Amino acid sequence: MAQGLLERIAAGDQTAVKECMEAYGSLVWSLARRFCASAADAEDATQEIFLEVWKSAARYDAAMGSEAVFLTTIARRRLIDRLRARKRRPATEEFDEEQPPDAVRYEPDLSVQAVEVSIAARALEQLGEAEREILLMGIVEGMTHSEIAMATGKPIGTVKTQLRRGLIKVRAMLGTAGEEPDDG
What we know:
The chain has 184 residues and is mainly α. The protein is 66% helix and 0% strand. It is elongated and about 85 Å long.
């Protein structure tokens, strides 16, 4: 008579572990998804369950029930344990966005902003139309290089070059030519 998967796992058969996961993985996963709040949590639970099956395979008794019943019992016990543990953890508080009354609030100086906008607009006006258009698409509209290339019909390399050159010219006009952005 052929040995069952759990008996083979208990005997140390490595292929039986894989076969067990293939045979019962969807059953365990469906149980885990019902008990767990997220797919990531269900994945963790499924791994824990199969680890427990591997450890407990020697306790399996075919006279007491099928392999599926044994796996389901382990899965259910593990999942209930996880739920209980989650309920025992203290609840986290939501971040309160309301600031205390004595907190210093930043109020931007609109007159300074107006001057800065005016200076930046003059610098952009000094660029060629193509460079200005590409810079505005990238900075103001937040388009990616690929999106700009599609919108303008230009090769992506040209878009990247014109963006870079345009930024360098604007920085030079604004007096920040020596400052390079921190790319991380």
